[in-house]
Design brief:
Radius of gyration: 18 Å
Helix content: 40-55%
CATH architecture: Alpha-Beta Barrel
Number of domains: 1
Strand order of the largest sheet: 7-6-5-4-3-2-1-8
Length: 313
């Protein structure tokens, strides 16, 4: 549910994960509990489902729709449901967008197709987003990808064109580099001041929050929702000592999850943390190659133990 507020999208969102049963199908009961766990902390205003951490690119169309449906049924009455849209084919992307809204999503976040990493085509990118905006009557969020993701990281001219599209309400800013983040924040303030710029680089939250942000959509909040809500609140209150204390507790874990190669195993590591917390029985993903070595498991476990100090029972 989008609240009646001058700044309805402001705040922290947990980018959810997807649990699978032994046969590879969606574990609906565990996913429902995961939704409650992610949003239990005061300050978590909603979720991003069907994002990268939610294995969007590995789910079927029906599975993506069901994920949204479960989220809307479980927490939709008092939390904002944002669904990611990721498809190489534009017609398919529009179908997924319509599915998500019909299933109960409040807003959509359009991810750049992975093929865009090879080259950047201004007209194709604008056409892709325009078609999705026209396919649904819903707020749309942009995704600014990391500086290391090639053409998926929009140039300033492309981002400016996207910001001017009708229906755009926010950017999930994942540049993973603070100077780039600040450039994009300043651009949005100049050409589209109504658009929220949400600092969403899980390894760079404190510095980007300090520069200025209107929220965050991060998978770290799927395992540490209380800590992320407290970090947001501390920066909102200009309490830098408290924010630094939280940062010191969670940063080593963030670095192990997102900073270690191969970075594509971040979802696996996040799921492993849920296993360590006793919430999930396995960290199964849709990638057959996803394996955590015993040494890495021990490092993750130690870092998670330290980070959990702020989470409470």
């Amino acid at each position: 549910m989008i609240p009646a507020s001058p700044t309805p999208f402001r705040g922290v969102y947990a980018a959810t994960l997807v649990p699978f049963l032994e046969d590879g199908t969606l574990d609906e009961a565990r996913f429902t509990q995961h939704l409650w766990d992610c949003t239990r902390a005061e300050g978590i205003v909603g979720i991003l489902c069907n994002g990268h951490a939610g294995e969007n690119h590995l789910l079927t169309r029906e599975e993506k729709r069901r994920v949204v449906e479960l989220a809307a049924d479980t927490i939709g009455k008092d939390r904002i449901i944002v669904s990611g849209i990721l498809s190489e084919d534009l017609d398919e992307a529009c179908l997924h967008a319509c599915d998500a809204i019909a299933a109960g999503a409040d807003a959509l976040l359009v991810f750049p197709p992975f093929s865009w990493a090879v080259s950047q085509d201004h007209d194709a990118i604008i056409a892709h987003h325009t078609a999705i905006c026209e396919a649904v009557d819903a707020p749309i969020m942009l995704y600014q990808s990391s500086v290391g993701s090639g053409g998926m990281a929009y140039s300033l001219p492309i981002l400016e064109s996207l910001l001017r599209l009708p229906g755009i309400v926010a950017i999930k800013e994942g540049s993973w580099e603070t100077n780039a983040y600040d450039k994009h924040r300043r651009l949005a303030a100049r050409v589209a001041p109504h658009v929220d710029v949400m600092a969403s680089g899980d390894e760079h939250l404190l510095p980007c929050f300090a520069i200025g942000t209107t929220g965050s959509l991060v998978s770290l909040a799927a395992i540490l929702p209380v800590s992320l809500a407290k970090l947001w609140r501390a920066m909102e209150n200009d309490d830098l000592p408290a924010a630094r204390s939280i940062h010191d507790a969670i940063q080593p874990l963030a670095n192990l999850i997102y900073g270690r190669a191969p970075s594509g195993r971040a979802t696996l590591r996040l799921k492993a943390c849920l296993v360590m917390q006793g919430k999930w029985p396995s960290c199964r993903t849709r990638k057959a190659s996803d394996i955590i070595a015993p040494e890495e498991w021990q490092e993750l476990s130690a870092a998670l133990h330290d980070a959990m100090a702020l989470e409470g029972p």
